[in-house]
């Protein structure tokens, strides 16, 4: 367990670049160097993480730890990989009142918000190419974006995900690439679902929905409500990474303002580790009386659903992936998620970050350099932070 923790902790200290980069780091370390599993097994874990809602790269890390050391190994992997970013974002949250008052700090944060525009725009472009190749998928993406722009709420997003799954089941079941029909000798692999973990996941999801409703009726904020809000987000985020933004914003509502939300997102870009560690910053900001408790509850809640679902499906993934109707439903959900992210690009990211033609020019320049030269994310963070500080000093 200690070996698993140390290996993932060391990666958590240096894993800049988001989920795609994390998956590359994991492969280099655990497949090529340590040989804890082979490429085929690793590829199946990556595919499963894309199939399930939750934090993609963290789910892969959890699955590697589970493969190496059972449930405790999975927990050790999660703690090791997440701890560096959790500590950094928590400390930034509890000290924000001290360093946010300086104009140069405000400039750096503004620059990081502009970086968020670049990073999310690039994520949308990549996800559009990956998930929206067919007309039905493109239509789902456009309609979901329009609806969320006009009616941004958690209930609307959840409803759109259900509709997208139904549409995808009937119209996106076939592969984007034409494949020959299966031969008569083909047999579908049986699905072995772990109902123990599934019942925990479903039970907590139902309880979270009830808890949020009761808290709103009572008008009193509780830790149970905080857990429930972040648990619901973790249960519905397909695609991981930046996709968490629109759902988080809808879920926590007025608990934090747009500036706090985007500051946390910008800082999450600047630290290594999983994007979902943003929950540590937001939890500390929301639960001001006991920020460490708030950060711990929010972080546990947002990661937990994805890990429970991995435990449900780890032994049945091949059987699930062999069913075209299921993969069609997921294709519909993925296309809709791209629409959600496009809506989030406008509000709150673009509308709160780009305030002048100079800002827009920096975004366009940064996006161009990002696509042409593909610099390390740490270089981008430093460049946009310095640019934001200079813009603030000049203006």
UniProtKB/TrEMBL annotation:
Topology versus the membrane: Multi-pass membrane protein
A Pfam family reported for this protein in Swiss-Prot or TrEMBL: Chromate_transp
Stored InterPro entries: Chr_Tranpt_l_chain, Chromate_transpt
Keyword Transcription regulation: no
Cellular compartments annotated: Cell membrane
One GO cellular component, as annotated: plasma membrane
Molecular function via GO: chromate transmembrane transporter activity
Record keywords: Cell membrane, Membrane, Transmembrane, Transmembrane helix
Protein family according to the UniProt entry: Belongs to the chromate ion transporter (CHR) (TC 2.A.51) family.
Protein name, UniProt field: Chromate transporter
Lineage, broadest ranks: Bacteria, Pseudomonadati, Pseudomonadota, Gammaproteobacteria, Alteromonadales
């Amino acid at each position: 367990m200690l070996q698993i923790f140390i290996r993932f902790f060391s990666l958590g200290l240096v894993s800049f670049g988001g989920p795609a980069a994390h998956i590359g780091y994991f492969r280099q370390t655990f497949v090529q160097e340590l040989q804890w599993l082979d490429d085929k097994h690793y590829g199946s874990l990556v595919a499963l993480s894309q199939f399930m809602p939750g934090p993609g790269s963290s789910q892969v890390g959890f699955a590697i730890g589970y493969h190496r050391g059972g449930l405790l190994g999975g927990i050790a992997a999660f703690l090791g990989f997440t701890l560096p970013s959790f500590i950094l974002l928590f400390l930034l949250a509890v000290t924000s009142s001290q360093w946010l008052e300086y104009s140069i700090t405000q400039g750096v944060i503004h620059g990081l918000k502009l970086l968020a525009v670049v990073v999310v725009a690039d994520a949308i472009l990549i996800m559009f190419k990956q998930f929206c190749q067919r007309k039905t998928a493109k239509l789902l993406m456009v309609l979901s974006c329009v609806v969320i722009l006009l009616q941004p709420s958690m209930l609307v997003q959840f409803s759109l995900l259900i509709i997208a799954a139904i549409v995808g089941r009937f119209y996106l079941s076939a592969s984007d690439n034409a494949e020959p029909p299966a031969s008569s000798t083909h047999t579908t692999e049986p699905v072995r679902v772990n109902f123990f973990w599934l019942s925990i996941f479903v039970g907590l999801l139902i309880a979270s929905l009830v808890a949020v409703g009761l808290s709103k009726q009572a008008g009193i904020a509780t830790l149970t409500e905080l857990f429930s809000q972040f648990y619901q987000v973790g249960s519905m985020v397909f695609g991981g990474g930046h996709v968490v933004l629109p759902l988080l914003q809808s879920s926590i509502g007025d608990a934090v303002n747009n500036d706090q939300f985007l500051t946390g997102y910008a800082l999450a870009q600047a630290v290594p580790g999983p994007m979902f560690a943003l929950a540590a910053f937001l939890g500390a900001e929301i639960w001001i009386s006991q920020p460490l408790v708030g950060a711990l509850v929010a972080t546990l809640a947002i990661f937990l659903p994805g890990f429970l679902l991995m435990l449900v499906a780890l032994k049945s993934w091949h059987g699930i992936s062999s069913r075209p109707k299921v993969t069609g439903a997921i294709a519909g959900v993925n296309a809709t998620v791209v629409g959600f992210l496009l809506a989030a690009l406008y509000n709150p990211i673009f509308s709160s970050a780009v305030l002048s033609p100079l800002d827009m020019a920096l975004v366009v320049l940064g996006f161009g350099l990002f696509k042409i030269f593909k610099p390390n994310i740490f270089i981008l963070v430093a460049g946009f932070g310095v640019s934001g500080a200079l813009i603030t000093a000049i203006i």
